[in-house]
Write a structure and sequence with these properties.
Helix 7 packs antiparallel against helix 8, helix 7 packs across helix 9 and helix 9 packs antiparallel against helix 10. This protein has 358 residues and is of the alpha/beta class. The longest helix has 30 residues. Helix content is 65%, strand content 7%. It folds into three domains: 120 residues, Orthogonal Bundle (Globin-like); 77 residues, Methyltransferase, Methionine Synthase (B12-binding Domains), Chain A, domain 1, CATH 1.10.1240.10; 126 residues, Cobalamin-binding domain (Rossmann fold, 3-Layer(aba) Sandwich), CATH 3.40.50.280.
Length: 358
């Protein structure tokens, strides 16, 4: 980077600081260039256009801060499917991003606009291909029938039926690990896909998640009955991440493998987390980020841990952004990245060594 070229953090900061102003400019330009939008959507549509532009800018700022055009491209692909399912033509999103790129060129210093524009281009390239919603599970997948019946019960609001399905399956010999991976995890992914494609509401998604968390707790007698190996895991989500079920699954997997686990939930302040790591003599910290706009908070949390503890505690990260960009975990200072709870166990064992703590 030359002396005159802005850093990625400077560009990201500018996008954050001027998000509302830039979103307003994008909206005005889009409605001025296409008067039919006012007739089609009215003032409510203008409001939604402004909010969408703010979302674009927020995800753009996070992608730039993470040095990851792939994160913004993935967001655009997700938004393409989500908007299409709600009757918004694909051309409207493309037009909006083109106007966003032009607005950045006009409103930001040339160096900042050039960098941000490259990330917008990555998003526009996604729109040249077919829309791709998340993949559905197939009948050949493990426990497919059970997962389908479980999800159907939840979508019908029959939490007690869903609970009975799981309890009966475990009593009949299905392992709790398989229930977590092939029923709970798969159901959460599928519910997310159904929301993206406008087939379930936010309320239904929240109900299904809350019900699954309750049913997970009902399995704890099967989880907290293993011998201990002396290893310690602390698990948490960063501030603002309300999708904590994934890291809770990871914590339960470690418990089943004989680790002592301390699951802190979401939004634990960094100084308190560091004190907990010290107090518990933790071997591993597991941190989850569900959305790309949580990645910066994960990076800040890791930096806080490193500043106090160095590399004494190994840090594992996981969550959707790290699946999109496989090298992201390295850039934010983690020791490893896992796609699911089973992989997290393998990685942690490799980092701290097999068997009990010496």
């Amino acid at each position: 980077m030359s002396a005159s070229e802005p850093s990625l953090q400077e560009v990201s900061g500018a996008l954050d600081a001027r998000r509302g102003e830039l979103a307003a400019a994008v909206t005005e330009r889009q409605f001025a260039a296409r008067p039919e939008l006012a007739e089609r959507y009215g003032e409510r549509g203008r409001h939604h256009c402004h909010k969408d532009a703010e979302y674009h800018l927020s995800y753009l700022a996070d992608a730039v801060a993470s040095a990851s055009p792939a994160l913004f491209a993935d967001y655009v692909g997700w938004a393409q499917v989500m908007l299409a399912a709600r009757g918004i033509p694909a051309g409207d999103l493309e037009n909006n991003l083109e106007i966003l790129r032009e607005t950045l060129r006009r409103e930001l210093p040339a160096g900042q606009a050039g960098i941000a524009g490259e990330y917008v281009e990555a998003g526009l390239r996604v729109l040249s291909g077919p829309a791709r919603p998340g993949e559905e599970a197939g009948p050949a997948d493990p426990l497919y029938d059970l997962s389908q019946r479980y999800m159907r019960a939840l979508l019908d609001g029959q939490r007690h039926v869903a609970s009975q399905l799981i309890q009966r399956s475990v009593e009949e010999g299905v392992s709790v690990r398989d229930v977590y991976l092939y029923v709970f995890q798969r159901t959460q992914h599928e519910i997310g896909r159904l929301w993206q494609t406008n087939q379930v509401s936010v309320a239904q998604e929240h109900y299904c998640t809350a019900a699954t968390q309750l049913i997970m707790s009902q399995l704890y007698p099967y989880i907290f009955n293993t011998g201990k190996n002396g290893r310690v895991l602390v698990a948490t989500c960063v501030s603002g991440d309300l999708h904590e079920i994934g890291v809770r699954m990871v914590s339960d997997f470690f418990e089943m493998e004989g680790w002592d686990t301390f699951y802190l939930g979401a939004s634990t302040p960094a100084p308190d987390l560091v004190r907990e790591l010290v107090a518990r003599s933790a071997d591993v910290l597991a941190v989850s980020a569900t959305m790309s706009f949580h990645v910066r908070a994960v990076a800040d949390l890791i930096a806080a841990v490193r500043s106090r503890l160095g590399d004494r505690v190994k840090v594992l990260v996981g969550g959707y952004p790290f699946n999109v960009d496989p090298d992201l975990w390295r850039r934010i200072g983690a020791d490893g990245c896992a796609r699911d709870a089973g992989e997290a166990i393998e990685l942690a064992s490799g980092l701290v060594g097999e068997g009990p703590r010496p």
